Every structure is written in C-alpha cells, then in structure tokens.
Amino acid sequence: MDTLDFVPEALPDFELPRDLLGFGEDSLDPEWPNGARIAVSFILNYEEGGEHNILHGDDRSEAYLWEKGGVATERINGRHLMSESEFEYGSRVGAWRVLRLMKEFGFPMTIYAVAQAFSKNRAFAKACVRDGHEVSNHGLRWISWEKCSDDEQVEMIKKAILLLEEASGEAPVGAYIGRGNIKTPALTARAHAELGKPFLWQSDCYNDDVPYWVDLPQEKDLPDSEKKGMLMIPYCYVTNDYKFVASDPGPGFPGAFVYEDYLKQEFDQLYREGGKVMNIPMHSRMVGKPGRINALRNFIKYISEKEGVWVCNRRDIASHFREKFPYVPGKLAVKKE
C-alpha cells in the first residue's frame, strides 16, 4: 500500500523533516497478527537512579516528574530528601508491583530503561528479561540532552546500549530517549550502526497511532538498495501516568478513577477503528502507587476480556511491521507483495 507523498523541508545533518500529512484520510491498517483489532503496548519508564542528583555529579536535585515536582522544589548544589525518596519508592516498591501485575495477566511490556538506573538495580533488570519483557534504551542518564553536541549524544547512546546489555543480559533494539533534541532519533540510528548492533525501532515521536518509516538524513547519498531507514513507533502523553503529577501544564489525572476511565475510553475508540497501537506509558514511582495500580489492574482486566486484542512489546510490533511493510525509501509504508 503506497502512502500519500509529501514534500519534506530541507534540513541539514541529522534533523528529520516534518510531515503534516501522514497516511491521510484512510490511515493505514498494519494487519496485526491473527486478525487482532488493536495492538496494546505497555511501557514502563524506569528512571530511578538516573535523575539529577549531586551524588551523580550534577549541580542540582531532580525537580521533574515526582509527586511534589516543580522548580520550587529544586535544590541547587544540594540534595532534596523528598525528591530522592519519591524516586526510591519507584525502584524499591513500584517497579516490583508493576512487574507482579504484568505477570498476573501474562502480558509483556517494553521497559524504557535509563542505563545508569538499570545498572543500580540489576535484580530488577534481570527479572524483566526473565519474565519476557523487552529492554529498550531510555538514555544513559535521565537528564536533558538539549545542548549536547551530536558526538556527545552518540557516545552516550552507545554507552547506554552496552550498559543495558551488561545489566540485564539483553541488548536493546529500540529506543525512546525522551529528553533529547531534534537530532536525537537519527543519532540513535547512527550509534547502533557504529556499534554494529541491531536497531528495529525508535519512539521519540507522538504524531500517529500506527508505525511508519522515515528516511535517515545520513543515508541521503547512498543508493536506495543500501538505505535502511528508521521505523518509528509513536509514543504518547495523553494516557501517560505522568499526568498524575503534572501541574504545569495541567490538568492532569485528578484521581485513579479518571485514569481508569480515560484508558477505557481511548481503548474503545481505537478498538472500534481497528488497526491502531494503544500506548500505556507507566512510571515505577507513579502508577506503582497502590491506588493507581489498582485502577490499571481494572483496565487490564477490561481489555483481557475482549476479543482481538494483541498485547505485545515494541520489538514484536517492529518485527511484524518490518515483515508486512518493509522499508521503501521515500514512503511511510508499502505493503510487501
């Protein structure tokens, strides 16, 4: 299936062009396995131990994404008890609670793993692989990369790949950096290529409900037969449990009952449409709290009783899509003949 063509903006180096058209009115049917109507991707962001902290060599405490987060709680050149304790709850308690929940239903998930954080909790890292979950690259540290040079980013991504493999026993084949810059997605592909490591997917995008291919700027001068492209599996903020603690901008989820209801509403609509990916982004220190995870459990029970639901990790999505819609330069997706 050919997609609508579009004219990309000319951008230098590793910057991807914008695409305001996508798949157009009819979208794309990825033809999920066994005729499934929807692919549901549970993602656990594991960041605890990789955040800003002067013990990590930073000049400040972490003020982002915890229960009382915000600039007013930041400590410059000092430690912040509340912030540190919230992150510790995620690694000590919340992460294990999420792992038990997924095991209860036999559902796989993808771990967006910050390498430094995973390396500090190797028992959990290895338990994730033991239980069949996918380990992916969420960066070497969970800090802003906005001002990092291209080479600095590539080196951090490469170090993260190797550290994640060492800590968990599994090398990541996908990435969501999250706090990078406009060049980060393409630089991720460069890092994998330089290490000679397989790279199946990238998720630093929020612009669709289905996967799609992009051309890599660094491959523009290669013959088409040598280009690999990059498969994007869009992520999202709307169902993200970070909205429990989001206050700027707001509003977030005011309570677990709203979270549970919204997840069901989004699922129902995507299930009705068919052929979509639903993201369930989680954080150990957020949805790992008792009342919130109970709401998540109610949602999981809800979808487990539906026909045609493919609960999968992102590696599975990428493998399926690559088989059905192999990369064709200049196209978002072309069905294999």
TrEMBL record:
InterPro entries, A to Z: Glyco_hydro/deAcase_b/a-brl, NODB_dom
PANTHER family the record matches: NODB HOMOLOGY DOMAIN-CONTAINING PROTEIN, POLYSACCHARIDE DEACETYLASE-RELATED
Gene Ontology MF annotations: hydrolase activity, acting on carbon-nitrogen (but not peptide) bonds
Name this polypeptide is given: NodB homology domain-containing protein
Taxonomic lineage of the native organism: Eukaryota, Fungi, Dikarya, Ascomycota, Saccharomycotina
PROSITE patterns: NODB
UniProt source species: Candida tenuis (strain ATCC 10573 / BCRC 21748 / CBS 615 / JCM 9827 / NBRC 10315 / NRRL Y-1498 / VKM Y-70) (Yeast)
GO biological process: carbohydrate metabolic process
Superkingdom of the organism of origin: Eukaryota
Domain NodB homology: 81-312
Record-linked Pfam families: Polysacc_deac_1
